[in-house]
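To close the chapter, one final illustration. This time we ask the reader to focus less on the individual chains and more on the assembly as a whole: which components sit near each other, and how the overall shape emerges from the parts.
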Amino acid sequence: MDFLTADEWEAVRLTLAVAVRAVGFGLPVAVVMAWLVVRGRFPGRGLLGMLLHLPLVLPPVVTGWLLLILFGVRGPIGGWLFHWFGIRLAFTTAGASLACGVMVFPIMVRGIRLSLEAVDRGLEQAARSLGAGRLDRFVTITLPLAAPGILVGAIVAFATSLGEFGAVITFAANIPGQTQTLPLAIYTALQSPGGEAQAARLCAVSIALAMVGLGVSEALGRRLDRAIGR
Amino acid sequence: MSLAVALRHRFPGREIDIEFTAAGEGVTALFGPSGAGKSTVIAAVAGLLRPDRCRVDVDGRVLTDTAAGIWLPPERRRVGLVFQDARLFPHMSVTGNLRYGQRRARRSGARETIGFDEIVALLGIEPLLGRRPRGLSGGEKQRVAIGRALLAQPEILLMDEPLAGLDDARKADILPFLGRLKTALRLPVLYVTHAMDEVIRLADTLVLVEAGRVAAAGALNDILARGDLAPGLRDDAGSVLSMRVRDHDAARRLTRLETADLVVWVPLLGVLPGTLVRVRVPAREVILSRGQPDGISVQNIVAGRVRKITEDAPRHAALVEVAVGGDILLARVTPDAVRRLGLVADGDVVAMFKSVGVEVVA
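The assembled structure is written out below.
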């Protein structure tokens, strides 16, 4: 394929890898958090809901900088990770994934929350009277019935994370081959003289990826709805 | 087998204070208008509601006792629950639904007394097994829901208006299945309804609930044949008798039913002698007389004693309980007739009712 250069292909591959990890690691956490917000009975539930949505409203640069403070090699969490496991997040591909994951986390939680709330409590009561405990009910009734919404939420989050810019560049910097995802590559191309053609090519790829993501989420959502008997 | 329930709960604007016991197997019907508190009882027995004060005892096993701080979570109560809306799991097949409770009962080490094949046959749901709940009719859904509850090997079955959402035709489809279950499984059933035809057909014990309180409780006919309760039952007042088919008179095209004290002729029935049937003699069908009449079409003429006379003032009627040995018939007549006949408690009277006026319900 000579539509894109090797470096550009590398940016595309990296972008997808970062998004997969951001959603892959973020989704289970998002499911648990959404469940806590929907069904939890503990003080501070409202505060948790607010905290979870914070990255949605904060300037991405602020989120990136906060990540740098927390997860930098000298930060409280980053320092601990580096000391004990030798894991470095700042200015690495893993760091780019973390930044993307944090940014799209509210989108996932929101989608999951809505689909969990839509599950008929009567069905959970029925399962309960049939001998299913709390976790059993969640795994066999609530989760499968919420699955279409969860999946659609994950795909939207995936598509969004392909375009994440501010937090990534602040926390992970703009290193080709390591943290330079599509939007960062487009930005770099626009900064260099004569880079418009390259920027345009990358933009086309961006748009194509986003459309594929939305299309897949639509089709999959409908298929899953049928699978759970709706 | 016994069930004892005592519960008190204050909802905003109304208070529930219900207490009753039901001894023995069979169906205990909680009957009363909507909002009387019947469903609250079911929710409390199932553990889906935590009443202010409550004690539930199923055959000596205490499920809830607020005074002693006992509250078993619903998933450990071994209580089968059938809701008005079937609440089948949409993402599972009918088989998946049926097995859901069965699998969990096995895992918890419950003794399996109700088998899958037996239930499928009893409820006639074999053709539905591979299907998803979405495509089922209301009656089919409800049958699957009943099977699912039973396969969880419950110690008591709770049914909260299971037929209320069905039209008359569907209801007629499913009632025979419920009747069969009753005889096939030795399981106590608590059955909530506001439909008297279901009570007459299924119940052995009746608990009348009104405005959050128990108005009366006892064996079905002891309650139904009581004149003082009849006004609340309106046209449903009448006695319900369990009778044995004695013989058929093919020439006269009549069937003779009997209890120890009473013989009743009804139009020819297609069942074998010895079969138990349940018949209802509506109060409005019973005619009273001082002596044996002559030259009359009525087939059933029985001598008895007046047990009690209750006036139903708003309807300008009187309800007369007539004891025939151990059986009670109820007659709705005018107060004028009571006066003309000189009816008094403990006086002799002859009760008459047409064969075609007797309803054979099950």
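The radius of gyration of chain A is 20 Å. Residues 117 and 184 of chain A are 37 Å apart (CA to CA). With these observations in hand, you are ready for the problems at the end of the chapter.
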